[in-house]
Amino acid sequence: MIKKLILLFLTILLASCNSKSTSNSKIKESNSSKDFVQFVNPMIGTSKMGHVFPGATAPFGMVQLSPQTNFEVMFKEGKYNSKTYEYCSGYQYRDSTIVGFAHTNFSGTGHSDLGDLLVMPTVGDLVLDPIETKDGKKGFYSKFSHENETAKAGYYKVDLESYNIKAELTASERVGFHQYTFPKSTESHILLDLVYNVYHHENKNVWTFLRVENDSTLTGYRQTKGWARDKKVFFAIKFSKPFKSYGHKKYDKLTYNGFYGRFDETKNFPEMAGKDIRAYFNFDTDKGEQIKIKFALSPVSSAGAMKNLEAEIPHWNFNKTKEATQQKWNNELSKIEVETIEKSQKETFYTALYHTMLSPILYEDVDGQYRGLDQNIHTSEGFTNYTIFSLWDTYRALHPLFNVIQQERNNDMIKSMLAHQEESVHNMLPIWSHYANENWCMIGYHATSVIADAVVKNVGDFDKNQALKASVATANVSYFDGLGDYIKYKYVPDDKSHSSVSKTLELAYDDWTIAQIAKSVGDEKTEKTFLERSEYFNNVFNPENKYMSPKLSDGTFRKNFNPLDTHGQGFIEGNAWNYGLYVPHQLDKMVTMMGGKQTFSKFLDNLFTQELEDKYIEKHEDITRDGTIGNYVHGNEPGHHIPYLYNWTGDEYKTQARVRMIMDTMYGIGVDGLCGNDDAGQMSSWYIFSALGFYPVTPGANQYALGSPLVKKATLNLENGNTLIISTENQSKENVYVSKLTISGKTIDRNYILHEELMNGGEFVFTMSNQPKK
């Protein structure tokens, strides 16, 4: 009997330990047998400035196993420039060479980092330089053709033409799974490049360490100093076949004096360490022989990586992992089942939905351990830890989308943000954080918006009082990016801080979101304080020119102000015409300030139709012609709410026409199907909401502005068990106007819907027409 009890206890314990092996153990498995993966095309957005990667990953997975294409400028010049900016995800569709497959990649961000732990299979003479050897010979890169390249959710395949090797990739949450089919050769190699980085420069690597545990197992780590100033990635590697020999080359002059003394790279020591290292592992292969690699990551230790490897992929069946990961994608994608007029629209929709689930990413081992912002090791209690919070982008639509279809995950993400704040020496919520680092990118403190949106929509079980305390602490760190001056002057003075108007507008909105959190917990004093601060946007509105304008510390507006210019005019990544319309919490007042509904409606008309000269946007990497309509910039986030602002003028039909036009022209199924950086899913989230017929103009409020649905029908399978059906009558390309909306049979005579109306389920029926309803 005792033995049976012990066995039962061990079984329960094992199940408990393995509960962390998926990105969210609470997420229910979908019963849907439909194949949504067939409509996902990861190649969409891989050209120009989409900055997405085509490789294999699981939903919200820690591993993004993806090809890195040849950007010779980065290797040779070793510095950041306009060309390297195009490689934020490590891949550009126009390229014809691959240098290997890295295990970490950003999706759609406006800055570059990662590209950790590059693997490259080769055949023939051993070459360890990626582009060109010292004597001018070819490096280890391979030519490839898009005709022999396949990218699907959870799977990537390409023929490495230079070596006659077929490369296949898949991944679980924490483990990358490689499968390489070799030709017959006594000179087959697998290279492990620990020098390579996205945004490569000679000082990025701090230290690398590689240990040969046996003839088929490796462990190690790499520490880098990039956008994340102190990033550590630990790993464990298993080969399906023992290697016959191995070695390495060290590219730095630092010496490593360990157990084996100073390294001689001509000898096969089982430990390799240094700043820049490339290792190689040699094999004999028969024709068609497959060598497989399981490559696990950990934020904690190589032992943690090994634990992740054994828990997630204990077998060598590549197709089993591929099918399991694609089923996970089907489970996530099935949360919204759509019918569209054209197949291309369905492909655009599901690829966008796929892009919304590439970050934030899981950032803990299967046992719940993770590296915190304080660089100590923590264990998540009652939540799953996530990282990559590109909050200036994603608070606008990505996290609001999660509050509809990923509520339990968003709850965990908020708890991760609260843990970040507790670990922060600055006592601040994340601004733009990844891999246990804060990079302080962009402006405002938008974690407060994510929290407020969840609070108002009754999402999650996080501690609201703790969330309010963390938000208030964040909003009072006076040395943070103009915040002290904002508190002192009640605006950010342009002579004391760059992007002063943008900062004032964003901070005022964030303060309003803190007031909403305070209201929810009954803290009237804090609510009043932050409602007063949320009015500070008034102080940068110039009544003479009717624009939000840069104001000096002496109380005067700056002279020689040009509202069309995006350079040095008090705004960041925008101008007064578009970023100046950012008062999401007081839109009625903003419309009044700018002359009333009729005048403001005409202002929006001009915004979309006026010609913007190149001189006003030159030198702006995030504002390109591909993403602009007149002076409206859809390729960048600050204006994503603008098409919906006609709803505040009484001209809702103009919103409907603009939104449909943007969906038709700014998104598509080609490799250039994104008009700008996807920015960690924000660009795609705009499309998902808009295709369904509504958009969260004001995160932190429970309302969604109505637009013009693109779908014929959408079924939302909600986590609360309810089902929402959105259907359209008379749907066509020409019928872009909404003549009627009913919710569960009741006609709605307003231009917004409520969050509870979504979550209650039922049916929304949009009746479409080619005639505007004025």
Automatic annotation (TrEMBL):
Domain Glycosyl hydrolase family 92 N-terminal as annotated: residue spans: 39-298
Listed GO CC annotations: cytosol
Highest taxon above the source species: Bacteria
Protein name: Sugar hydrolase
GO biological process, one term: glycoprotein catabolic process
Names of the cofactor(s): Ca(2+)
Alphabetized Gene3D superfamilies for the sequence: 2.70.98.10, alpha-1,2-mannosidase, alpha-1,2-mannosidases domains, GH92 mannosidase domain
MF annotations from Gene Ontology: carbohydrate binding; peptide-N4-(N-acetyl-beta-glucosaminyl)asparagine amidase activity
Signal peptide: 1-21
Keywords, comma-separated and alphabetical: Calcium, Hydrolase, Signal
Glycosyl hydrolase family domain ranges (all copies): 305-769
Subunit structure: Monomer.
SUPFAM superfamilies, per database record: Six-hairpin glycosidases
Hydrolase listed as a keyword: yes
